[in-house]
Amino acid sequence: MKKGRRNFIKNSTLLGLGIAATPQFGIASNTEGNVETMNMTRPKVLFFDVNETLLDLTVMKESVGKALGNRSDLLSLWFTTMLQYSLVSTVGRQYNDFGIIGAAALQMVAANNNITLTENQAKEAILTPIRSLPAHPEVKESLERLRNAGYKLVSFTNSSNKGVETQFKNAGLTKYFDERLSIEDIGKFKPHTDAYDWAARKMEITPNECLLIAAHGWDIAGALWANWRAAFISRPGAQLYPLAPSPEINESNLKLVTDLLISLK
After folding, report:
1. What's the pLDDT at 164?
2. Structure pTM?
């Protein structure tokens, strides 16, 4: 069995229980109760997370690490704090630009580690490099292949509309996408279920006709809980959430994900 096909069913708790899954997850049980792979159908729209999924965050991580006194060990704490307070804002029915929340989170992490960092310094460390991030090496060719295969491509990000527009222009990605969606228009950050429901409505399709491609376990979990399909890109340091369903595709880069999606009928 090819690696990609194994990944359709890898780590699924359904396997150990002998329970049939829906065809979108690529597994089912036959009449003898044995689990076997099935051919999946094509989703109507491919939704792409942007930062880390498509764009390489190395330059921004270096900038943030420098702002934290060259404490690269604090980078993951900063990111999780940013995500935490984006969800705090959503639960509290508030909204601020994701970059602004990121700068506030950076000040919090700095303060807790006795690092002096002003609001302007925090914003500069994040907002300047994030506008000009390069695409991962395999991204442009993969997006071109998916378009040529007839897929509709939509970006779906926690970043602002202006932010992702600038990022795509600087990274040379604008021409590959049919639509750009930002949660700025709904005011609720992913992985809130309402964000995924809203994106599906915007494209005038049902949730199970959507497939999210992302390099964040929390984003994949949110999509699956909203009854979307999902493909995980396991960039270095990225992990799936063990308490969420397993996505039907789990590969190390977008090229491998693209190979599998193009094979679907």
Report:
1. 96
2. 0.85
